[in-house]
Amino acid sequence: MNKIPLYEKIGYAMGDAGANLVWRGALAYLAVFYTDTFGISAAAAAMLFLVVRLSDGVTDIIMGMIADRTTTRFGKFRPWILWSAPFLGLFMVLCFTTPDFNDTNKLIYAYVTYIGLTLAYTVSNVPYSALMGVMSPDDTERTKLSSFRFAGAFAGGLLVMGFLPELVAYFGDGDNAKGYQLTMYLFAALLIVLMVITFVSTKERVIPHKTTSGNLKSELKDLTKNLPFIILPLLATTLFFYYREIYSGLFFAFIMTMMTVVIKKLLNKDHQNLTGTQRDMVDLLTNKPWLILLGMGFLTMMFNGIKYGVIAYYFKYQVGSELMAGQYFVALLVVSILGALATGKLAELIGKRNLFIISLILSGLLTTAFYWVPADNIVAIFTFGCAAEFFAAMMPTLFFSMLGDAADYSEWKNKRRATGLIYSAGTFVQKTGGGFAGALVLVVLAGYGYNGMNEATITQSLPGMQLLMSWIPAAFAFLGAALMLIYPLTPAMTQKITEDLAFRRSNV
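Structure for MFS transporter, as requested:
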């Protein structure tokens, strides 16, 4: 059966509603929590966001491999959603807890708890994302499912970003540290309930044929030999991004040159002599749709992450109303739900690629308008913000739907399917983009002299906030539109792949 029942689409959406109690909360409020409540400097917090993404580079890929090789009576991916839920809730609370430590120990605590949160999120969200790729073999159904997923995601984000300031004020009664912690207890309990609903209501229908000969232990051992492919480029990029000087630039250039040589050698190697993980890497590196989507995931998360990451600062200092940020988030997320739900129908009419390009250009243009909007013109702020967000909501919806197409393309071309690995790279690059976006917000603010614990530095940092609301994120949207022009999977080719795979599976 290719068609997914309505109750199952809603049940699947509940999982991302739960995940976004974490993801949207951390993305929108964790930076300002660290700098203004916990007392960590903006520069130290920026480095924290970047370093944690290095661990994500390893854990996402490992989790994708583990999920692909998991075999239970409940399927490959669904059990992980259930098993990870309590840990995700626990670290959500710990991240927003403020122990009375000195500055050094505060930073250590932030690293430990934030790494714990991202690890728990990986264990939950990589299998959750991959589940979309095996609930139906039909790409149209996956697009509709993705629309439901992100409607749920934005609904979860609506609860966090729309009401978190009020809940913090209510529970804290003047004590923000206490308010954050008690609010996260509430969200953690709700998260676990939503994850259980997803586990119970969904079903895995696409069962790939076994394509690996080694067991999981040997494959993971093999992966450790190939970790430099992941860690070194990330390390070089992180150092260059953070320090932006000649030595980090030279290190970046050296690593990228070396990796190019090694990758070319790997691609030219006889496939019969490749290990399982090397074959997986070759399949990914020769999957043009996936490579383009990898770039798109990063660019769209930079675009959306920067916009969301600066909102709390913008309303607190530019507009002069911290609580109005919550109202703005509510407006954005209501519009986001509408945008996500409209994506499936619009994609049927004009195609996923064309819709992706249009959404990037229009959202980018509307975002640039913030550069000229006065901070006291609340109507204009809400109007341009909501209009831009309607199109921005289509980006993750299309991205995760198209990852399923890339998985189909890999199976069609290579006769091997690694849904978890393809989606793990997708979730990783989205988290990497989110981490770099959060770090870029803090780097720009630090460059303008911002110090959340010193009010005298606020005025000089206002131009930086204006740029972060307008031209800086828009630049990533325009780059994404240019990249999407070379995406190769047309509707006709996607339909042919779907039909060929259906025939191939029915004749095994």
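The longest helix spans residues 139-172.
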